[in-house]
Amino acid sequence: MDKIEITDLLEAKHKELFMWLEIQPADNWEKGPEEKWTTGQHIQHLVDSLQLLNNALSYPRFFLKHKFGICNRPPRDYETIAKKYQQKLIDTKDRTKKFNQKLKRPTLQQRERLLTRFQIQQKKLQYKTRKISEKNLDTLVVPHPLMGKMTIREIIMWTAHHTEHHTKTLKKLY
């Protein structure tokens, strides 16, 4: 998947989530199934994830190469990344549950501001994706807390899947 296809995929996955959010009653923002995140927490989590990736992509390429090294394996495609992520969620369910309990609960008053931040961060990622070279997408790596080191291309594709994963969860349970 080249960088234009990836940016189109990011746009499509985020658009689907935003369309779902638009039709939800504002009251649902602070609600969620028992022992599950609220809608606001899902969005906070996605914003935090996007912001961390955008921050990493703001570092000079030589810094990323020095700090994390370069890829020493063949690149993985979108389907492989999605399957591996879903398996990791199953394998580390207890660890992720404990980690996710710490996420703050955005209030209804914070909704518009958080959605604006979400929109800005996802557009910023699309911009950065278009600007980075195809070579750097496949050689530079960054760490993912669950998946380990991933190439820039892989972690951006994972971001699209991550958004889809949360969108499906929200549509199913909320």
Helix count equals 8
Level of helix content? 55-70%
Structural class: mainly alpha
Reading the helices and strands in chain order gives: HHHHHHHEEH
Outline the secondary-structure elements:
Blueprint: H1 3-22, H2 39-58, H3 61-68, H4 78-91, H5 93-100, H6 111-131, H7 134-139, E1 141-144, E2 148-151, H8 152-173
Antiparallel strand pairs: 1-2
How would you portray this structure in words?
The chain is mainly alpha-helical. Helices cover 68% and strands 5% of the residues. The protein is built from eight helices and two strands. It has helices at residues 3-22, 39-58, 61-68, 78-91, 93-100, 111-131, 134-139, 152-173; strands spanning 141-144, 148-151. A two-stranded antiparallel sheet has the order 1-2. Strand 1 and strand 2 form a beta hairpin. Helix 4 crosses helix 8 (152-173). The longest helix has 22 residues, at 152-173. The chain is globular. It starts with a helix and ends with a helix. The mean pLDDT is 95.
Task: Record keyword descriptors for this entry.
two-stranded antiparallel sheet, 8 helices, 174 residues, 5% strand, single chain, 2 strands, mainly alpha
In short:
The protein has 174 residues and is mainly alpha-helical. Helix content is 68%, strand content 5%. Helix 1 (3-22) runs parallel beside helix 8.
